[in-house]
Amino acid sequence: xxxxQQKEKDGEHHIFHPSFKAKMWLQTGIVAxxxxxxxxxxxxxxxxxxxxxxxxxxxxxxAAVCIAISFSLSGFCYYFDFLDTKLAYxxxxxxxxxxxxxxxxxxxxxxxxKRYFYGFFDNIxxxxxxxxxxxxxIFTFMALIxxxxxxxxxxxxxxxxxxxxxxxxxxxxxIRAYTIEKSLWMHWWQSLDSxxxxxxxxxxxxxxxxxxxxxxxISKFIKKHKHFINTxxxxxxxxxxxxxNKGID
Length: 249
Description:
With about 250 residues, this protein is mostly helical. It has helices at about 1-15, 20-45, 50-80, 90-110, 115, 125-145, 150-155, 155-165, 165-190, 200-230, 240-249.
């Protein structure tokens, strides 16, 4: 556990080092926009048309995958030491995913203005709006604190706790996707006669990443528990006698 925390600390200092920023942004951008192009092509193939909605859906897909990479990196680095050098990409994929998600949110104003623009205040208390706005508010908070100044001001522990709110925000978006496409998902499960709804696949990705994160916490707990059991306790069988130690001291 201490080794993992040290990795995170090293990664935090690394991602804020000016000499690495340009390289990190370039490499992250190439991967992210490559994914965006893939989702544009996939959506065009599935929908049979290249319209504004196509670009909007692709933004949502690219956002989900970028955030998945960001959230998964801690886990992969925890289980596989040879990936430690990739931990620094966590911030850059996370921010890129946020900007994609923000662009997707803005695109909804043009894709469906009747609901998201003209009817904004009429629908503001719907599950769609509440879940989406809450999630994006959390992601915005995370983006604002993803810098060295915020880490120093909040302290490393509170800073990490703030960033971990992202898992909750991401889960809210998966729930939002279910509320929007519930009937479509049910129809697909009953028929299994076509390509799975992309938003359903992305929601399953969300759940997989969250479960991956939970597995890390379980692993840390088990290691800590084993360490406690294997550490001799005072006056326990096999442990040095406390009174004898006092006499020696």
